[in-house]
Every structure is written in structure tokens, then in C-alpha cells.
Amino acid sequence: MAQVTFKNLQKRYGQTEVVKSFDLEIKDGEFVVLLGPSGCGKSTTLRMLAGLEEISGGEIYIGDTLVNDLHPIERNIAMVFQSYALYPHMTVRENIAFSLKIGRVDKALIEERVKYASDMLELTPLLDRKPKALSGGQRQRVAMGRAMVRTPEVFLFDEPLSNLDAKLRGQMRAEIKALHQKLGTTTIYVTHDQVEAMTLADRIVILNGGIIEQIGTPKQIFEKPNNRFVASFIGSPEMNQLSAELTSSQQIALGNQSISTKAQFSCSETHCNFGIRPSDLHLQESSVDAPTVHSLEALLNSQELLGSTYHLHCTIGDDRFVAEVATSEHLNTKEGETLRLYFDEDRMHLFDHQDKVILAQA
Amino acid sequence: MHNKLSKSHITAYICIAFGAVIMLAPFYFMFVYATHDNSSILSVPPPMFFGDALAENFAILIERLPYFWHNLGLSFFVAIAVTIANLLLCSMAGYAFAIFEFRFKEVLFAMVMATLMLPPFLGMIPTTMIMSAIGWMNDPKALIIPAACGAMGIFLMRQYISSAIPRELVEAARMDGCSEFGIYWRVIVPLITPAVGTLGLITFIGSWNNFMQPLVVMNDMKMFTIPLALRALQGTGQVPWGAISAGAAIAVLPLLILFIITSRQLIAGLTAGAVKG
């Protein structure tokens, strides 16, 4: 096990900068998820750490060792690929044992490690099968077994669940989590799926266009996004963003409605964006368990029943937004009617003209 | 509908049968003539069925070509050496072109492909001059080394590898600690056997049947390959057609056996690259 440090890491393809000044310290045994839309540089960062991609600038340390120019095998890391990359001509046993065989490990020890991994991953009955005779989930487990037997210092996962169906994905997510808890190996996991990131990570690193937008625990990222990108990227349905004016440090105008906040906000420009998560909007004041409750009037355009919740599609002026309310809370409001939505002041977010969050001063 | 379908089927069968007859007739008559003496072969109409002069024809063949078995052995040696060399070098080159990124990759590959545009005869004279200059005339090396690697083989291997081998597999092997040659040998080679089989067959047949290159670099009758040796029978005096046919039948036999064993794989290999996603 080891800590991993990225210092001013950069990657360029010709003139195109894919990763720009990436700085991150990952603690020993930590599970870190790199999350972002496709093309944000998350896989490239992982591949640079693995040694599969050359580094254009900066430094990567595993433990205290600078690994920039080390061959992948010298970095003592193992990687699970998106396509699993199992050797089709080898049995499950041979696949798992391959790296040990290459490393000329003693046969008895290979046998022991393969047994340990296959028992832990429930692969023992499948050891003599070829990959084509396995299901997607089983292949995924073989790929993990192959990474495990090497007892690496760092585990890398490159979108390992994206080829599985939704049900299996949930199951494998739990297995990866359990494996990490058992082995305690430092793990870096790349995905574009926010559910995977939220459920697996100790810390999430949100990437966009080759730069880090925010680093934090899943709770911090969800509740205190640094900017509009993070706010809208995490959460489903995504955070509502309405254009607003900061008329004074404690007064926000949304269309012709105004909210007087307890907290003070300061911003050089008056124009800002008001953000609130759909699940933080309520139809009854009593549902909001907070000292400072505000409300807004909105026009209900349409509504969708999703079972335990309703999605209410509303407008204030020209801005559209969604409120997610419990079915039990629903007041039989009809489309075209005006309704009042309540929210906790602590749950609202304000973003300035550069899309950065405006922090409240108590 | 059914009627129309069977009609088109019949037409297709007739066309295929006609083609088969045209393709097979020379083989059939080669075997038939191997069993007839010259006067019978040259009579009108020529013989259509097997005769009884096979042993006699063999005797003439061995008498006129005292090194016949040596020639046959040499042909085998050259064909096998050329095949092994091609399989190794073309698969390595194809692998490099398919998987690696290196400077001038596209230019180099274009140059390799451009050699296909040159008529083979154009290279014959320079090759012969080089062989002569380095003292390889009448040496099997002069047939093996220049033919050890070809653009067609490299192209076939590159196409097959880039369609059948995902890049992640190579990267996984690299992370597992394989050397670059280890990746090629332990991961790539086992996965490209269909293409290896196809290229092996094509190369073996091509080398076995090669006539022009041996003609210019082999002067000593002992060092003739089979096509050249059989051609030598037509040189002077009365041409012993029966003996030539008997020799040709023996020369063709290894190819026929090889083809019967591997035809399924040959056809599968030729089409495999095309349909793999």
C-alpha cells in the first residue's frame, strides 16, 4: 500500500492540452474516484499513473518514489480495464496467474495466491473455463482477481462497470467496495457515473476540460459544490439554476419575488444564479425542518408521478425548474395553477457571473 | 417463388460445375498422362483414362533428372524456410504497424505497400546481381532471404491484428510485466493463428510454385527446385510428356495434401479479418 501524489501533472497531444496542472495527494488506503464527462482527462490521468501514457509535464510519486520514467511493472500497480482485457486463449486460472508466471513466482505460491483470489471472488468453480464461457459479471471478477494476486500497492479501475447492465452494476459496485474494505489497498477509480462515484468514493475528484473543479467527500461535493459545473454534474435530476439579482447583501430577487436571507452575501456584481436541488423544494412549510424557511411562488406546467415521488415542472418568469416532492406531500395541484414551494436557506446556492459559488457570511 | 428460387439454384450449380471442370481438367489430365507413354499421349484423340505406363515414365524421369529427389527435397527446404521466415517477420511487422505508435509509421507503411505496385520482374535483376555479388548464386539462401518477408504478408497480419486484438489486451500484458517480445509471443501469436495459418499456406504454395527466381539464381541442375527441374526436361530432344506429368503429379501431391487438410482454415482465415468488428 502507498500514497500517490500528483504534482502539476500535464498531458498534451500536439497543441491540445488534455490534462492541465493536475495536483492531488491520495492517502494510503484511500478510495478516490476521478469523475467527469467524457474527454475531461480522467482516463488519461489514470493511464499516466499506470505508465501506459507518457507524461508531458509534472511528477507522479507512488510512496516516495518518482515513477515518471518507470515501466508499468516497476510501479507495482494493477489495473482493471473497461473491456476487462482478459486473455481469450487462457483459462481463468491462467489469466489470474499470468503476471505471477511472468514474474517467475514459485509454483506453489502461485497456486496459493490464485486460490486466495478465486475463493474471495467466488471464481473457484470457473477456474478451468475460458473467458468466452463467462458472463459479464464473472469476467469482471476475473479481471479483479488478476489485479489482486499481484498484491499491488495501488489498484486502478478504468470505468470497470460500464459494460454491465444496471442490475449487475449495482451488485459489482458492492463487491468492489467490499474488496477495498477487505484489502485496504489504495484505489483510484475512473468513471463518468455519479452513482458509482457517490457510493464508492472516500473522496471524489471532479474533472472538467483537463482541470480539477473540486475535490471532496461525496457529501461535500453534493452539498457544497464549488461552482455551477459541479452543482449541475452531481445529482439527478440536476440542480435547478435560476437567474437572480443580489439587490442587497441580504436580499435576492427572482423575477418579481424577493427573498430576504438571514446570512449575508457579497458579490462585486449584482447579477447571479440561484441554485437549489429539486429534492430541497417542498410543498408544505412543515416539511422543511430548518430555522430559516423561505418560499417561492411558481407556475406548475406539468407533473410526473415516479412512484414515491412527483416531479413538478415549474416556471418562475422565463426560468424553468423541477421540484421533487414526496407523493404523500402532493396537494393535488393541477397544471396551470400557481403553487408555493418552501426551502431551507442552508440548502440554497448562489453563483457569481464566473459560475463560482458565492459563500454566505454568517 | 419456390420455383424461381430453385431455377436460380440450378443455374448457379451449372456455373459452379462448369468452373470446377475447367479448374480440375488439367489436374485430371496430368494424372492420366503420367500413366501413358509419349506415342499414346500424342495420338488423336488423346487418352482420356488411366493407362499402365506409370513405372516406365518414372524410370525416364529419374534417368533424365538424376537429382529429382534432391530437387524435391530442396523445394521442401526452401518452401518451409521461406514460410517460417515470413510467419515470424510478417507477424512481427504487422503487430508493430497495428499496435505501436512510432515516428514515420504511416510513411513506412505506405512504402511497404508501395512495393506491391512494383512488378516482381522488376526486382529480379537487381536481386540476382546482389546475389551474384555476395556469392550466393546456386545457394538456397538466394531463394530464402529475399523472400523472407513480403508486403502482402505484413498487410494481412496488420489488418488481422488491428481488427482482432484490442489494444487494452496489449496494455494488460504490459502491466502484467510482459516484455515487448513476451507480449508478441505469449499474447499476440496465440490469438492470430487463423491469419498465421492462412499466410503460411499462401507463402508455402507461392514458394513451392516459384519459377522465375530459381531460374535466374540457380544454374547447377542439382540445385534446381522442382518447377525448374521439370522445365529442364523440355530442353533438348524429344519431350517426355509422360515423365513430365509423372514428375508434376509428385510435385503437386504435397500441396494437394496440405490443401485438403487446411482448406477449411484457409477459407476461414481469408474471410475472418473482413467480418470481425
TrEMBL record, chain A:
This is sn-glycerol-3-phosphate ABC transporter ATP-binding protein UgpC. Transmembrane segments: none annotated. The gene is ugpC. Residues 4-234 form the ABC transporter domain. InterPro entries: AAA+_ATPase, ABC_transporter-like_ATP-bd, ABC_transporter-like_CS, ABC_transpr_MalK-like, ABC_transpr_MalK/UgpC-like, Mo/tungstate-bd_C_term_dom, NA-bd_OB-fold, P-loop_NTPase. GO terms for cellular component: ATP-binding cassette (ABC) transporter complex, substrate-binding subunit-containing. Gene3D superfamilies: 2.40.50.100, Nucleic acid-binding proteins, P-loop containing nucleotide triphosphate hydrolases. Signal peptide: none annotated. One of its GO terms (biological process) is carbohydrate transport. One of its GO terms (molecular function) is ABC-type transporter activity. Keywords: ATP-binding, Nucleotide-binding, Transport. The keyword Nucleotide-binding applies. The lineage of its organism: Bacteria, Pseudomonadati, Pseudomonadota, Gammaproteobacteria, Alteromonadales. It holds the Pfam family ABC_tran.
From TrEMBL, chain B:
GO terms for biological process: transmembrane transport. This is Carbohydrate ABC transporter permease. PROSITE patterns: ABC_TM1. One of its GO terms (cellular component) is plasma membrane. It is a multi-pass membrane protein. Pfam families: BPD_transp_1. Keywords: Cell membrane, Membrane, Transmembrane, Transmembrane helix, Transport. Belongs to the binding-protein-dependent transport system permease family. It is found in: Cell membrane. The keyword tRNA processing does not apply. The chain crosses the membrane at residues 12-34, 74-100, 107-137, 143-162, 183-208, 241-261. Residues 72-262 form the ABC transmembrane type-1 domain.
